[in-house]
């Protein structure tokens, strides 16, 4: 139950870079982590772990990516989230983070407990932004 799972969608690699930095933080706390692109993930993987991080950039108009991430997130509705800890993250460009606020509200409506506000980064994460991702990984597994 101690293994950590990161599931993400990333079109141009920015959210993927966040996932890798979050994984670094998790590993620095001595935990094992699997990083799985959402097209290789399923809800049973989430059921098996306590610590989960989900990543998706702002797509559409302030939405999750609609072909893979949106149906995956929808499938998480009926999971028992009561003993799980969740972190959300993703990259954006011109918006103000609305998609992430909506996503957080949605996950909380499923019963999920977030360890922090969703972490958002403008375009490619660099410097301090990568450090913030690493910190989120640590926060997740210490929650
Ligand atoms: C089709 C499309 C729709 C997008 N819609 C939004 C949006 O509504 N708000 C926003 O802030 N950024 C939007 N973006 C910008 C992406 O969120 C941004 O490029 C992000 O860094 C992509 O992350 P990725 O490299 O993980 O795919 C959009 C990008 C694309 C290609």
From TrEMBL:
Q: Does the keyword Electron transport apply?
A: yes
Can you provide one Gene Ontology molecular function annotated for this UniProt record? oxidoreductase activity, acting on NAD(P)H
- Which InterPro entries does the protein's record reference? Flav_short (IPR010087), Flavodoxin/NO_synth (IPR008254), Flavodoxin_CS (IPR001226), Flavoprotein-like_sf (IPR029039)
Q: Which Pfam families match?
A: Flavodoxin_1
Q: Which cofactor does it need?
A: FMN
Keywords associated with the record:
Electron transport, Flavoprotein, FMN, Transport
What PROSITE patterns does the record point to?
FLAVODOXIN, FLAVODOXIN_LIKE
Flavodoxin-like domain segment(s): 4-141
Is Transport found in the keyword set?
yes
Family affiliation: Belongs to the flavodoxin family.
Role according to the record: Low-potential electron donor to a number of redox enzymes.
What's the protein here called?
Flavodoxin
Q: Source species, please?
A: Vallitalea longa
The organism that produces this protein has a lineage beginning with:
Bacteria, Bacillati, Bacillota, Clostridia, Lachnospirales
């Amino acid at each position: 139950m101690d293994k950590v799972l990161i599931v993400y969608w990333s079109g141009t690699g920015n959210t993927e870079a966040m996932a890798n930095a979050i994984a670094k933080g998790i590993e620095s706390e001595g935990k094992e982590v699997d990083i799985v692109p959402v097209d290789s993930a399923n809800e049973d993987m989430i059921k098996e772990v306590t610590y989960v991080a989900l990543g998706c950039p702002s797509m559409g108009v302030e939405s999750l990516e609609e072909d893979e991430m949106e149906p995956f997130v929808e499938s998480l509705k009926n999971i028992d989230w009561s003993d799980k800890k969740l972190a959300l993250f993703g990259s954006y460009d011109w918006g103000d983070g609305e998609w992430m606020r909506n996503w957080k509200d949605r996950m909380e409506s499923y019963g999920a407990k977030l360890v922090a506000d969703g972490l958002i980064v403008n375009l490619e994460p660099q410097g301090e932004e990568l450090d913030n991702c690493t910190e989120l990984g640590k926060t997740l597994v210490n929650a």
